[in-house]
Amino acid sequence: MLDIIIIGGGVVGTAIARELSRYRLKIALLEKEIEVAFGVSKSNSGIIHPGTQNKSGSLKGKLCVEGNTLIRKIASELGIDFQEVGQLIVAFNDEEVIRLKEIKVEGEKLGIKNMSIVDSAWLQENEPNLSKEVISALFIPSAGIISPYRMAYDLSENAAKNGVQIYTDNKVEKINVLEKRFEVITNKNKYQSRYVVNCAGLFADEISKMVGINDFVISPRKGQEFLLDKKRENITNHLIFPLPSKTSKGTLVIKTSDGNPMIGPTAEEIEDKHDLATDDNGLNEVLNSVKRLVPSINERDIIAYFAGLRPTSGSDFIIRHEDKVPGFVNVAGIQSPGLTAAPAIAVMVSDILKNNGLNLNKKLFFRRFRKKTVHLFKTDNAQMRKIIKKDSGYGDIVCRCEMVSKREIEEAIERGAKTLDGVKFRTRAQAGRCHGGFCTTRILKILSEKLNIPFVELTKRGGKSKIVVKERT
Amino acid sequence: MIERDLVIVGGGPAGMAAAVSAHENGVKDILLLERDQFLGGILNQCIHTGFGLNYFKEILTGPEFADRFIKKIDDIKDIEVSLKSFVIKLNNNLEITYLKPGEMNEVKAKAVIMATGCRERTREMAHIAGTRPSGIFSAGLAQKLINVEGLLAGNEVVVVGSGDIGLIMARRMTLEGAKVKAVIEIQKQSKGLVRNIVQCLDDFGIPLYLSHKISRIYGQDRVNKVDVVKVDDKYNEIPGTKFEISCDTVLISAGLIPENELIEMAGVEIDRKTNTPVATDKNKTSIEGLFVCGNAFQIYDLVDSVARDSILAGKMAAEYLKDKK
Amino acid sequence: MRKEFICIECPNSCKLVVDIENDKVVNVTGNKCKKGETYAKCEVENPSRVLTSIVLAEGLEIKMVPVRTNKPIAKKLILTAAEEIKKIRINNSVKVGDIIVPDFLNTGADLVATREVRNE
Predict the structure, then answer these.
(1) A328-350 pLDDT, tens per residue?
(2) What ipTM does this complex have?
């Protein structure tokens, strides 16, 4: 019998798993997809928010500010690249400048430090590609960027190292509430535990219903995002935000951990939790909005589109122990700033469990550190020369656009990648300007060889997403 | 840093032709860098006929065309071929950094010819709305999968674009047992050769829809259908013309883009529209001693023309080196 | 019977109007040169194509060896021939032009390799 079952292997679930793996507990994480981070988390834009634009007193505000601090520690322990690039919320007229000042005051209440209102001369100097129409901006230095999927992968890898059992391809279909324990039934197996933590993202309402709690609904809000060529890495130096609207933080110019600038997202209320389609309306809307911020953004530099769904439920996060079902904790409605808040959510969940009877005894040895994953494109020449000499596979380039070597792909597979997308999210191979036109064949060969799976069984992202239908044999 | 007279980046038809020509014109020290484990470039996957009529006066397949140049290169001792060599950096001083399994090398060249070819336009660049399931391939990727690895990309196929690559792949997939349901062309006429329309489509009864486009791709895990619409002169959907084609595969053949990221890194001015160097003369760039040839310089219809102009590039580099001495 | 063809012998793409009686060409118009007539005759009476494909290699440096028929074969045989090719194996090094199957399917054409492939 397990102590805890965590349902959902997104960035929240993996952060909780890692946090709880400090203690002497038997923990399992169940993920319905074939790999972790394949749901909401994979389309996150990777911004580590400072916490502005959240109401004081809200869970979002509190956890975002805490998370912004905690994530730095986690990033350094796990070897995840975190860059504190800073954020600019821009104003085009005097009225908007007043709003900036209000946001600053609200932010200070939440405990955000070192914010300043900067003028056009400062902007000209520090953000030269910004529209000349911008007259002022709120500069928030503590905003940063991280790779959302790498964060989830590295958290889950470290959690597993510390004893958490991670079961992917395990979709929870039923939960039986028994005497002082739960029986969780998936498409693959049955698991029993004393506690269940539900962080099933878009499907958290459905999981909650399985134990009779149905007082919230998760509504998907679609965001279409567009990635620019890495050549334009320095189109901005900061994260560029317009003033927020009621439903979203607006359409942004985002720096990413991988180098490719991202523009978006849209905010579209939809019904279908599987609708990840993109369209020209989204593209035009985003282009129009961001060109107002940074006029030199060029449509020709767009190399990829995707859509993600924010799991929204009301205006704040839902993080609570369900007293009607002792032992069941809901962590739902984790939309923006969920990535930033994830480490703080994990601490909060651990406190909730403790307050509800779980003994948290620290392990004698908690493996806090993780060896940093090699990414050639982030490695300087001297270092690169060294590692190539040590392991010749790093000198064997597979993905030409993003400069990913054979060894990096093998490592991704050794660390849990089973699919083309899993390799892509971990390494960036196929994510560049040719979109895998050149390297997919070779990646399939490496996957097939390393996993000992025939080509016709390999998938893009699990399930029926097979890539080739026949092999000449 | 090792110094070389001429470094050529790319061992496809352009790079090979340039190397042979530079040597014929007196260059004695040539390093040819190729990232693949074989010379030949994209010709190795173009197993169909249609190459060589102008240059060799006979109709060859891609690998046969490549073989003729590979043989020439093999016979010239002054050309050093370095395979599995991937250039990561080029600067305006013509210093090149390249990786090989186990090695990182730097070389300074007196002249450089970039013969880096082109890549295919993607589904995103063709602005096709819809989901992102598996089953969407560039035509070149599907071609490589089948012709090099023996892997068939799909069973029921819709091809977007009726240029020669699209037509050739329609036939190729058919011969391997797939059902090609349609070729969709947004223009009023196909840019492909009549020969290919006849022998790749008509021979197998594959319908070609001119002035049509795919307006949406559907499917969660794998493609399951596409919407096709008729378009007006401005390529906008004509209302009421939409119909569905069920399929598990979409092959995109929507044009080619020259690969010039390395010379852009070196500071060469690039035309954003064509991704080619801004140049007044063929094969030249704004950096002295840096030449570009083949599909990297402009997209050619025929490999014969690539060879012809790359031979010119080899000669230009040779003359430049002579003048420098 | 009257049929229309586009001549594919050269880039002129002449639109040929061909009169056919008992499966034989009796008259061709619309052609700018003699090739058009030959083409029409061939397309009507004995259409043929060069077939290119790949053959599975065993123990060679690459997995698939590209092949072609060294002469056009009857068009109606193309699909059968494409299936037949899938059964062939090559297990020794080949050079361009090496015959893989002589007189392939009794067509008079040989199936030949189009790429040099060495042993592993």
Answers:
(1) 999 999 999 999 999 999 999 99
(2) 0.97
Instruction: Write out the E strands in chain C.
Output: 2-6, 15-21, 24-29, 48-49, 52-57, 64-69, 73-74, 89-90, 99-101, 111-113
Q: Which pLDDT score, from 0 to 100, does residue A63 have?
A: 97
Chain A residues in contact with C54 (beta carbon < 8 A): 472
Summarised one tens digit per residue, pLDDT across range C47-94 is 999 999 999 999 999 999 999 999 999 999 999 999 999 999 999 999
Residue C12 confidence (pLDDT) above 90: no
Active-site amino acid positions of A: 49
The rounded Cα C69 to chain-centroid distance in angstroms is 6
Residues β-bridged to residue A138: A89, A117
pLDDT in tens, A137-178: 999 999 999 999 999 999 999 999 999 999 999 999 999 999
- Chain-centroid distance, C-alpha B131: 27
Q: How is residue C9 written in tokens?
A: 């012998």
List of residues 6+ apart from A125 with CB closer than 8 A: none
Q: Which residue has better confidence, A53 or B141?
A: B141
Cβ atoms of A402 and A429 closer than 8 Å: yes
Classify strands A87-91 and A239-241 as parallel, antiparallel or unpaired: parallel
C58 interfacial to chain B (CB closer than 8 Å) = no
C52: nearest CB among B47, B66, B193: B47
B134, B140, B272 ranked by CB distance to A459: nearest: B134
> Which sequence spans correspond to the domains of chain B?
2-119+256-324, 122-252
CB proximity C53 to B under 8 Å: yes
Q: Which of A47, A48, A137, A46 is nearest to A89 (CA)?
A: A137
Best interface-test mutation with C: which of B37, B64, B149, B190 has the largest number of C CBs within 10 A?
B64
Segment A386-417, tens digit of pLDDT = 999 999 999 999 999 999 999 999 999 999 99
Q: How does pLDDT run across A441-463, given as a tens digit for each residue? A: 999 999 999 999 999 999 999 99
- In this model, does residue B265 exceed pLDDT 80? yes
Please give the backbone phi and psi of residue A33, each rounded to the nearest 5 degrees, phi first.
Answer: -80, 170
Q: Report which secondary-structure segment, H or E, holds B142.
A: helix B139-149
Do the Cβ atoms of B99 and A397 come within 8 Å? yes
Q: Do domains B2-119+256-324 and B122-252 have the same CATH topology?
A: yes
- Count Cβ–Cβ pairs < 8 Å, chain A vs chain C: 5
Measured CA to CA, the distance from residue B310 to residue B18 in angstroms comes to 5
CATH fold, domain B2-119+256-324, is FAD/NAD(P)-binding domain (3.50.50)
Q: Does C76 touch chain B (CB under 8 A)?
A: no
B134-143, B210-219, B233-242, C11-20: the lowest-pLDDT one: C11-20
pLDDT at A247: 65
What does the pLDDT average to over B109-116?
98
Closest-CA distance of chain C to residue A473, Å: 7
CATH class of this structure's domain B122-252: alpha beta
Chain A CB contacts of C64 under 8 Å are 472
What domains lie within chain A, and their CATH numbers? 1-81+144-217+313-372 (3.50.50.60), 82-143+219-312 (3.30.9.10), 376-457 (1.10.10.1100)
* Chain C residue at shortest CA distance from B71: C116
**Three-state SS annotation for B78-107:** CEEEECCCEEEEECCCCEEEEEECCEEEEE
The two tokens of residue A358 are 């779980």
Return the residue of B nearest to A298 by Cα: B272
CA distances from A168 to A1, A22, A174, B281 (A): 19, 22, 16, 58
pLDDT digits (tens, 9 = 90+) for B205-260: 999 999 999 999 999 999 999 999 999 999 999 999 999 999 999 999 999 999 99
